[in-house]
Amino acid sequence: MERNQTFLLQQVIDDLLDPTLSVEAPLLKLKYFALLVKNSKLAAYTDLEINGYKDAKILPRYRQGLAALTINLQVGIDNYKKELPISMIEKPYASQLKYLPVPEGIKVIEFMIAKSGQKSDLITVAFPMESLHLLQGPAGKLYRTNLRPTVTEAWLTTNANILVQIPSTVRSRLLAFTMDIAESFGFDIQISKFKGNQIENNQIINNYFRNEIINQGDRNIVNTGNGSSLKGK
Fold it and tell me: What pTM, to 2 d.p., does this model score?
């Protein structure tokens, strides 16, 4: 017999409203809730935010900083550090390099913020040595000299403020998401009652998830069934 368990959604909201707490705390609670009600979308999202994104193809836009490309250009015996517009690189590589990903888990990002102490306003990632050949042609066109210029090193950079913005964005979107859930199911959710109409109730949560987390707050909710209130047997 399943025990009458209650998930305290208000605790998640309290965590989100406390800027001194790590965003990992409400993420862990929401992952626990997702596992209780078998909501795969919410479980996957919270897991990725906690443990990090290993697949760049599914990285949210708020975890992608607009990138700039700097090259070390050797001309004869001289070296020059120059910027190279990413748009000059051949397709499809230009679109792949346009944004610098930040795939780390939310706790790691918060640690990076604390450790940096605003020492640098840039995040710098070395451009792969084996791909430097992609930059030779564009660099030669942009920086014309009597001697053939050679790109010996390159770096991708983005504004370090994205590290601060990521936890803030996650916190804000989760707050809107949890408040929507609270409006439909209450601030304390009875798990057994939720499971009484689990498929329909999870669809309602998925709609909120899509609107508040994925689509940045678009509120065109498409409900299933008779309304958006918690349904029991």
Answer: 0.83
